[in-house]
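Exercise 7. Given the encoded structure of a 260-residue chain, write a plausible sequence.
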């Protein structure tokens, strides 16, 4: 007989939880008995369909909350929904924007929009969620999503990589401030080229084929690779905080050894 999941009954908020990676994560956490709050910005039908599918399997409750993370009302609604389901424990922020500039060079407006989507909204939600965890006195685990471009230098990604790098630093600052007796841990997952979410369009276009054909990585990432990383950080007895786990198959280490 398998042992019960350590996440059973622990409320988790998945901001951006109905996308390619979020869907796999939501299914995995719900299967463990975690009540879920699925956040979405525009894809309401997709989020509702996922919620209906999860509820149909029985088990823990699932609710959806829509809105932009950069809006205070949305952040409040997400945290409130978590508190209504029980004691908030886990927050995973998958939301963001690839910030692809229209003209090839990011304009001021595009950089400001990227900062709002990829740093301001996620980091303020993390802070609000941490406050709710502290108020309940039960600790918690926060996982933010950066990118390989936020931890290594990829030319042409200024508008996207800058805010994602700021997110890494902000997460570490939160981890420092929230450590100790509060037991709210903050960590970051930095995906590489993953066949889901933001990179899927680029993979279909062949943008990253050279890294596989040239031997830098043996395959593109899968949602399951990232789910394992998130699940590690969500484990209640985890002893890790303020860290970044780059899940890229070694691409940031080996992108300079691509064979032509």
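Solution.
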């Amino acid at each position: 007989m398998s042992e019960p999941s350590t996440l059973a009954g622990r409320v988790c908020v998945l901001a951006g939880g109905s996308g390619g990676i979020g869907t796999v994560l939501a299914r995995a956490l719900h299967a463990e008995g975690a009540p879920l709050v699925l956040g979405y910005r525009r894809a309401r039908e997709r989020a509702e369909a996922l919620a209906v599918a999860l509820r149909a399997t029985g088990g823990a409750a699932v609710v959806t909350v829509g809105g932009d993370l950069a809006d205070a009302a949305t952040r409040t609604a997400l945290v409130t929904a978590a508190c209504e389901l029980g004691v908030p424990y886990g927050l995973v922020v998958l939301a963001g924007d690839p910030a692809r500039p229209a003209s090839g060079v990011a304009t001021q407006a595009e950089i400001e929009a990227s900062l709002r989507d990829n740093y301001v909204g996620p980091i303020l939600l993390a802070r609000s969620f941490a406050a709710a965890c502290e108020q309940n006195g039960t600790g918690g685990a926060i996982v933010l999503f950066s990118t390989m471009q936020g931890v290594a230098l990829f030319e042409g990604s200024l508008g996207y990589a800058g805010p994602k790098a700021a997110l890494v630093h902000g997460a570490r600052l939160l981890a420092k401030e929230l450590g100790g007796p509060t037991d709210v841990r903050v960590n970051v997952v930095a995906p590489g080229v993953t066949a889901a979410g933001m990179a899927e369009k680029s993979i279909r276009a062949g943008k990253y084929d050279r890294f596989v054909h040239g031997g830098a990585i043996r395959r593109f990432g899968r949602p399951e690779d990232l789910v394992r990383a998130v699940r590690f950080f969500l484990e209640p007895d985890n002893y890790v905080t303020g860290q970044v786990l780059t899940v890229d198959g070694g691409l940031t280490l080996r992108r300079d050894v691509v064979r032509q």
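Remark. The chain has a mean pLDDT of 94. Students should compare their own answers with the one above.
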